[in-house]
Structures are given as structure tokens and as C-alpha cells.
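Sample entry follows:

:::
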Amino acid sequence: MLSRAEKELWNGAPVPLGYDFDEEIKFPVINEREAKKKKLERALKRLQDLYLFSDESMSEKDYLLRKQDIDEK
């Protein structure tokens, strides 16, 4: 296992979500369909979060702090 790691080869752990294992190169590759889906989900979540924080009574400073908190998640 260490020799495979030193050669930067896949050690056989479960493939992360959003990836497929490519038998030819013996390494996980991005599943483009899943990547596109996740990108759209993140964009929708961001729009929802911005909508929730669009109070007119909220100061610009508070809005930016909450927006920053969302971006870090």
C-alpha cells in the first residue's frame, strides 16, 4: 500500500461521490453528469440563501457577514 501511495496510485479506497473508477487508468475520474448536477444544486442553494437574507431592514454589513458565512459552507 505504501509503495502504491509513493507512486501516486489509487489504493483501493471507496470512490468519492461524484466520481467513477476508470479501469483503464486505475484512478477515479469526475462523473460529468454528477458534477453538473452538483453545480446546479449549489447555485440554487446560493440563490435561496441570498433570497432569505434580502431583508430591507438588514444592514449591508450584516448582509455581507451572512453572505460570507454561506460562502464558507
Remarks:
- The chain has two domains: 1-30, 32-73.
- The CA atoms of residues 4 and 28 lie 15 Å apart.
- Helices lie at 2-6, 32-52, 60-72.
- The first strand starts at residue 19 and ends at 22.
